[in-house]
Amino acid sequence: xxxxxxRPSPDAEAMAAAVAAAIRTVDANIDSFGDRYPADxxxxxxxxxxxxxxxxxxxxxxGWTTSFWPGMLWLAHDLTGADxxxxxxxxxxxxxxxxxxxxxxxxxxxxxxxxxxxxxxxARRTGDPRARGAALAAADRLMTRVxxxxxxxxxxxxxxxxxxxxxxxxxxxxxxxxxxxASHTTGDDRYAAAAHRHTAELSQHILRPDGTxxxxxxxxxxxxxxxxxxxxxxxxxxxxxxxGQAWGIYGFSLNHRHTGEPALLAAARTCADRFLAQLPAxxxxxxxxxxxxxxxxxxxxxxxxxxACGLVELADNLDDANLADRxxxxxxxxxxxxxxxxxxxxxxxxxxxxLHGVYDKPKGxxxxxxxxxxxxxxxxxxxxATAPGWTSPW
Length: 394
Fold this sequence. Notes:
Strand order of the largest sheet: 3-4-5
Order of helices and strands: HHHHHHEEEHHEEHHHHEEH
Shape: globular
Radius of gyration: 20 Å
Number of strands: 7
Number of helices: 13
Structural class: mainly alpha
CATH architecture of the domain at 16-33 and 147-386: Alpha/alpha barrel
């Protein structure tokens, strides 16, 4: 067989087609949104501009999801090398620098999501001083949310709010990379130490003995004693919110990469094994792992996309090649299902990358819609699958 006889595998062809479809949507959204921000979720399968809140205009940089838009632009640049995506992504640095300088909507642990994708990436790649300064300011702000002696990072709201005080959530595992970056950049170990301690607390308490996870968990902020687990967006306190389990796979894997802590790798494997055991026939999870085929419940494509990324990250951290291959194969099945049955290729009426996500089913928010984070992690999963040597922003 000559070199000209070699043909791409069906999976390679499918992934290339999925990337091309996703890039077409990103291109259209650059024209529509530019340096403004879409809403958290679609409405009728289309993203509107982010609604005006707190005196900010439509499309303003508020909320926890805005960085997923520049994050997608950086991924588009990684996939294509085209300078227009670099320029479009860099156009968001000023907005995020202004946000942290003016203290706009910063009472959240999601500063990690917000500033890793918007400012750490350009700080690393271009040395941009405004991006670096904004990311470090966000890391400093995140450090103010560390509650002693519990050693956890409070998730939401004013630190004095009795409903939120002492509460963290499993999503927080994805916010700690900002702190590891800050320690690496400044040489100040305080950031990494806080991240490590927080993650160790979650591995001991937010992960249940049966391998499922709580969405949220409370500690006594005065004594540090662990109190109770609850849910906020899952079906019930005793059930397992699918997106939270996916955050566990990815977040514990990332924190292991930054710390080398074996217990965190074990926690990631536990989350992964339980998630995979609960998947339906098409490998895309229902919004809570309590539900399966025949339940008539909605899927959460965003949980699937996060898990696909997390499973590859987990595999990359493993020394056991057979086990790593098992997780990579599972990630490939999930990603192929998303590309074949959940992507918007062939749905020109939508400006999302994938559909059939769920934001908050109990509150009726973003149910069976596209989600901004689902789109980002779907594109990240495609990048992991098709761009050898890709460097993670996390």
